[in-house]
Every structure is written in structure tokens, then in C-alpha cells.
Write a structure and sequence with these properties.
heterodimer, A: mainly alpha, 16 helices, B: 340 residues, alpha/beta, D-Maltodextrin-Binding Protein, domain 2, 2 domains, 5-stranded mixed β-sheet, 3-stranded parallel β-sheet, 13 helices
């Protein structure tokens, strides 16, 4: 009989060696792996130490250790040589940045538009929420019409507010939303048209796309606002904002068409043939088979176009439309708040607003991509 | 600038060719039909036309549009404002998008004769000036020899400065930027000794500095920049309404009629005041207005001096002296043709 030792308990797991776990190991692995890594890390730290304190000091108010004047401060506080950002000025002119020249007693109308938009877009963006079709129709078709009548007035006893008085964030959002909503269908149709076997349709689509893509947006806007009125009979004027809307929409739909075409070309021929062999008509095969796959492929490209469009809306300021950036520029000549950092604070504020919207779009697109990922990704 | 000028000229020539502006409707009738005046303004020049704290347009040039609205509608608020860039302004006027262009526009011969517009008057006699640091102890532009001067590139400002220094046999080193804000920043940071632009803008920019009192604007004005409202060519009635609105603003100041005392002045014995306020004679009818057209202007908007003091005068943050814009009786250039 021979004994063999049988251990009845598992050995306690020993902690990993110090140099393979914990913050030190993480730093060694990620920051100081090679001499060049170490050098880059040190350079980056030096850069941060050099850049962050002044920026922090400029942006943060007194009670957080900075020089900025918080909302509620006075212009005298901003007029000191050492003052940081003048947030008091931003909060004092906030209504101008949001509504432009919209009459103050009618602010409830843009507010209602903002609220309705938020109410509709949140359930639309969350996949679990039911009634997607109704929701989409409400948002893409009903909402713009309601918005127009709400903002423009002249119905139901609401006083009329002409578009010259619209401004600020309101106009920025209107231009980008209209641009996005209208350019999706136009862009898809153009992309399909460009793939079409019918020569006239194909030529027209190519001509349209290549024309709009070959012209800078600023030229389009300038033409629309300066030249167009001169070519029209006296007395017939097309609304300035409408002209910009049409220009922005056509411009972005040309870009979107090319993005969608990329998606269409990425689909294997077999998908088209399979759809045909099922006996589906052209539109049905596009709607059920081709477009869902093609669009999914190009979500990053589409969102990229939208982000570019959102930022491009600031170009309308050159034709005298008061979008967010233009209100900030106009307010920076406000003598009541004139101070050394007035203009910089304004631009900082505009930059932050643009960043928030673009970053949100970007994150949503990444999330959507992951959700729709069906394993085709290489 | 040349390119833009050329573009605008081409555009306007094209429109004339198409006959778009050939047959002018009477602007006064159009304006009365729509119930408001469409007034082209700047995108925000403090004191001249800029949004105030309540997001309403305000300023000396805005007051001109309000004055015309008061004369036509007895309501200074019957104005809608179209902010225009300097490139768009003339096309917008020619195309009929606006009825009055009151947008810090310099009255020059080529604009008056070549662009299909007519200037109704000069709301502000501006001119290019110099700003220096008080600490440098410079008292006159003639002391500026050898100075580094901050200038916005591609403007008439740059050319005027070059002319001035050459004429007076002085040297200078230009420090050129493309953007107004950059120029101001460079001057404030001490990258140059002198900042030059139109004197009204100098005053507005100075008020933005941390210590405005450390800076002085030199007395010399080296160019002529008469800023005035303009209207479309080919509609004399509308032109006269604008021109005489301007004269009424001046005449009222000369006669001492203000928005505060205009009602008392109705009982004045001075025949000039009687004619101005429509107590005696009807000077409104020939230009399509009522007899009390000038009374309405003064009642609602005030006289020129009141507007000046309210928007750009010494009491405001802009702090401009009357200078050339004083009445002729005070040694200035503002002179109204007699109403009789």
C-alpha cells in the first residue's frame, strides 16, 4: 500500500507579480514601454502642465480657482485686465444666442418647437420603443410643418414673425434639421439614379451630383442670396432663409448621394440577383433587400456628412442670416458688455455648443453601428 | 475688394439688362401696402446698427429708418431689418429686397452714379484716424514717423495710411492682419505703436480695452468717409421722402425742437417751426405724406442731436464728439436745406 499525498484544498491564488499588474505595471506597459514611448509620455505631460493651468484659469470662475466671471457677474468685473472668460456676458445675452431677434413675448413658440422635437426624437432614437413608423412620420413629415406654422405664425391668432427675426441656435437647428431630413431621400434617389440603367436619369443624376459637389457651399449661398434676387422679376422675392435652406439641402444631398452609392457598390452582385430571382420589383428589391444593407454599411459616412452639414450651417452668416455663430459675432460688438475677453468668450461658447451637438451625433452613430452589426464586418 | 466690386457690378448690370429694375413701382405705395419698411442694416456695428440687450435693433442709422417709418406710418416700429454683409448690400437694394440701405455706407461718386442707387444724406461724417497709447506721449499724427502701424489688409484704410505717410514724407512699418479683431488684439498686445481705422470704429474698439483711458485718439482725420442712407434710383418720390426725413432731423435740431418739447412747439410763433411741424403750409403732400410728417418724426424718434447723443455721443460708451457732425451753426457740416 502506498500513500500518496492528496491535497484537499486549492492553493490560494497568489497576487500577480508587481511588475505585471497594478498602476505601475499599467504605466510601464502603456506609457514607458520603450525609450521613445517614455519620451513621448514626458513630452505629453510637459505639454499638459504647460497648457492646462492657463486654460483652466481662463474658463473657471473664482470659486473654482480661475479668473472667469460667472453668470450673474457685472461688466465691470469683466473689464479688468486680468479677467478670464466673461460668462456673465454669455448668460446676459443668452436669449439672443438662442432665439436671435425673435420677439420676447413669443419665446414660447420656439420653446414648444424645441420641446416637441426632443419629445419626438428621443423615442425615435431608442430602438426598444414601439410605434416607430408613426413616430417617424410624426417627426419627418408632421413636425416640420407644425414647426413652420408655429414659428412663422399668422395662423390661429399667433402674430406673424418673419424669418428675418429668427436667429441663433433656433436657425442653426432649423437649417441642419431641414438639411438632414430633406437630403436623405433626395440623396438616396440620386444615388439610385446614378446606378440606373436608364441613360437620361443616369446622366441627369450625374450632372446634378457633379455640379453641386464641384462648387463650394459658400459660393452656393452667395449666389442664392446675391445673384438670384437680381434675376427674378421685381417684387417677387424668395425668403432669404428659404434660399439658404434650399442651397444647403441640395448641396448636402449631392454629398449624401455619393456616400450611399458607396454602400450600393459594396453589396455583392448576388444580393441584387437574389432579389430579382424572388420576383421582387425594382422598388421592392431596393426597399427590402438592397437599401437596408447598403445604408447600414455607410452609417459612419452618412453621420459624417451630417456632422459636416451641421458645422457648415455657420456659413450662412456670410449672407446675413443670424445663425448661432453670427449672433455670437454680432453680440461681440455689444458695447454694454465690451470687455477684453468678450469676443473670445463668445467664440468659446459657440464652439462648445457645436461640439456638444456633433459629439452626440457621433456617439449615437457608433452605438447604432454596433447594434446593427450582423457580423459582415471584416 | 476689386473682385467683389466687379461681381456686384456684373450682377447689377445683368439685372438691368433683364429689365428687372427698369420699371420701378412706386416704393411708397409698396411700403404702404405691406405696412412696414424693409431696412438694410449692418450685422452689428455698435452705435450705428446693432442688437441691444433686448435683441432690438438700435443705433444712429437704425433711427433713420425709424424716422422714415414715423413719417409714413406714424409708427417708428413699422420697420423690419435685414442684416446685410458689405458684399450683398447694393444687390439687396437693387433687387428690391430692402427699401432703404442704412448700413455704414460711404457715399462715393462711383456708388452714387454707377450702382443704381442714390444717397439721401450723410448721417455721420466719418474719417480715418489713429489711436496710440497715452504713455507714448504722441500728440499728433505728424509725430508718427517711424511708427509700427496695425492695419487691416485689403481695405481703403491701408491705402489711405500709405498716402498720408507718403504725402507727409514720413516712414512707417505696416503690421498687417486680415481680421479686425486680430488687428485690435495685436495693438493691445503692443505689437505695434498705432492702430488706424475709421474714427468711429476706433472709439468703439477703445471701449473694449481693459483700460480705455490708457489710449488716445489723435485729432487728425486723414480721409473722408461720409456714411449715409441710400435708396434705389428711379423713384424720386421715395428718394425725396428719405432726403427730407434727413433734413427734418437736422432742421428740428437747429430750431430746438425735440421729442420732449415738440407738442409745445406746435404753438410756437416762429414761422420756420410752424412750417416744419405742418402748422402752416402743407409740405407733406408733394412727397405723398401728411402735413404733420416732420412732427411725427420728431415726436417718435427725436431730432438728429438727440439720436446722436443717445447712440454715439459723449455720454455713451462709444463717446464720439460731435466734431464734423455738429450743425453748421456750431461749426460742423450738418446743414439742412430750408423747409419752405
Amino acid at each position: 500500500m502506498s500513500f500518496s499525498f492528496v491535497r484537499e484544498q486549492m492553493v490560494e491564488p497568489a497576487p500577480a507579480p508587481v511588475n505585471t499588474a497594478g498602476p505601475i505595471a499599467w504605466a510601464r506597459r502603456n506609457l514607458f514601454a520603450t525609450p521613445s514611448d517614455s519620451l513621448l509620455t514626458i513630452l505629453a505631460i510637459v505639454l499638459l502642465v504647460w497648457a492646462i493651468p492657463p486654460i483652466y484659469g481662463f474658463v473657471m470662475p473664482n470659486f473654482l480657482g480661475g479668473d472667469a466671471v460667472p453668470p450673474g457677474g457685472t461688466v465691470e468685473q469683466c473689464r479688468v485686465e486680468t479677467a478670464g472668460a466673461c460668462w456673465a456676458y454669455i448668460s446676459a445675452r443668452m436669449t439672443f444666442f438662442i432665439y436671435g431677434f425673435y420677439p420676447a413675448e413669443e419665446y414660447w413658440r420656439p420653446n414648444l418647437v424645441f420641446a416637441l422635437g426632443t419629445l419626438l426624437i428621443i423615442p425615435l432614437a431608442i430602438p426598444r420603443v414601439p410605434f416607430k413608423r408613426t413616430n417617424a412620420i410624426l417627426f419627418f413629415v408632421v413636425y416640420p410643418v407644425v414647426c413652420f406654422y408655429l414659428l412663422n405664425g399668422g395662423v390661429l391668432g399667433m402674430p406673424s414673425v418673419p424669418t428675418e427675426q429668427w436667429g441663433g441656435l433656433l436657425v442653426t437647428l432649423i437649417i441642419s434639421l431641414v438639411g438632414i431630413i430633406c437630403s436623405i431621400p433626395i440623396g438616396i434617389l440620386l444615388a439610385l439614379g446614378r446606378q440606373s440603367k436608364l441613360p437620361i436619369i443616369k446622366t441627369l443624376c450625374i450632372m446634378f451630383i457633379e455640379l453641386w459637389r464641384a462648387v463650394p457651399l459658400i459660393t452656393v449661398l452667395f449666389m442664392a442670396s446675391v445673384m438670384l434676387p437680381l434675376f427674378m422679376p421685381q417684387g417677387t422675392t424668395v425668403d432669404k432663409l428659404l434660399r439658404a435652406l434650399v442651397g444647403v439641402t441640395l448641396f448636402s444631398s449631392a454629398y449624401l448621394a455619393e456616400v450611399v452609392r458607396g454602400g450600393l457598390q459594396a453589396l455583392p452582385r448576388g444580393q441584387y440577383e437574389a432579389a430579382s430571382s424572388l420576383g421582387l420589383s425594382y422598388w421592392k428589391s431596393m426597399w427590402f433587400i438592397i437599401l437596408p444593407q447598403a445604408l447600414k454599411h455607410v452609417i459612419p459616412g452618412i453621420v459624417n456628412s451630417f456632422i459636416a452639414l451641421f458645422k457648415d450651417t455657420s456659413l450662412v452668416s456670410i449672407v446675413g442670416i443670424f445663425d448661432l455663430l453670427n449672433t455670437v459675432q454680432a453680440a461681440s460688438s455689444d458695447i454694454d458688455w465690451s470687455s477684453p475677453t468678450q469676443a473670445i468668450t463668445g467664440y468659446l461658447f459657440a464652439g462648445m455648443v457645436f461640439w456638444v451637438f456633433c459629439f452626440a451625433m457621433s456617439r449615437y452613430s457608433i452605438w447604432m453601428e454596433r447594434r446593427l452589426d450582423t457580423g459582415h464586418k471584416g | 475688394m476689386q473682385m467683389q466690386k466687379a461681381l456686384v457690378s456684373i450682377a447689377i448690370a445683368a439685372s438691368l439688362g433683364l429689365g428687372a429694375t427698369a420699371a420701378q413701382a412706386a416704393t411708397l405705395d409698396d411700403v404702404k401696402a405691406k405696412g412696414y419698411i424693409q431696412c438694410g442694416v449692418t450685422g452689428g456695428v455698435p452705435g450705428f446698427s446693432a442688437p441691444d440687450a433686448n435683441n432690438n435693433w438700435t443705433g444712429l442709422e437704425v433711427d433713420f429708418c425709424r424716422a422714415v417709418a414715423a413719417a409714413v406710418f406714424d409708427d417708428p416700429e413699422a420697420v423690419r431689418y435685414t442684416p446685410l454683409t458689405s458684399q450683398e448690400r447694393f444687390a439687396a437694394l437693387s433687387a428690391g429686397e430692402i427699401d432703404i440701405l442704412s448700413r455704414t455706407t460711404t457715399w462715393t461718386m462711383s456708388r452714387d452714379t454707377d450702382l443704381g442707387i442714390m444717397f439721401a444724406g450723410t448721417m455721420y461724417y466719418d474719417g480715418q484716424g489713429f489711436m496710440v497709447r497715452k504713455a507714448d506721449g504722441i500728440a499728433s499724427a505728424l509725430d508718427l514717423s517711424g511708427a509700427a502701424i496695425c492695419i487691416e489688409s485689403g481695405t481703403t484704410t491701408e491705402l489711405n495710411a500709405a498716402d498720408y505717410f507718403e504725402t507727409n514724407g514720413m516712414d512707417y512699418s505696416p503690421v498687417v492682419f486680415t481680421d479686425q479683431d486680430e488687428v485690435v488684439k495685436a495693438f493691445e498686445d503692443g505689437r505695434c505703436d498705432v492702430y488706424t481705422t475709421d474714427s468711429s470704429a476706433l472709439a468703439a474698439e477703445r471701449s473694449k480695452f481693459g483700460n480705455p483711458d490708457d489710449y488716445a485718439i489723435l485729432p487728425e482725420i486723414i480721409s473722408k468717409e461720409p456714411l449715409g442712407p441710400s435708396v434705389r434710383q428711379g423713384d424720386e418720390q421715395w428718394f425725396y421722402i428719405n432726403r427730407w426725413t434727413y433734413y427734418a432731423l437736422l432742421e428740428a435740431e437747429e430750431l430746438g425742437v425735440t421729442s420732449a418739447n415738440v407738442d409745445e412747439m406746435l404753438g410756437s410763433d416762429n414761422p420756420a417751426i410752424k412750417r416744419l411741424l405742418g402748422v402752416e403750409g402743407d409740405f407733406g403732400a408733394p412727397i405723398g405724406l401728411t402735413a404733420d410728417w416732420a412732427y411725427r418724426i420728431i415726436k417718435h424718434v427725436g431730432n438728429y442731436g438727440e439720436s446722436f447723443a443717445k447712440h454715439v455721443g459723449p455720454e455713451t460708451d462709444i463717446g464720439l464728439e460731435r466734431g464734423l457732425n455738429a450743425l453748421w451753426t456750431d461749426g460742423g457740416l450738418q446743414y439742412a436745406m430750408p423747409i419752405r
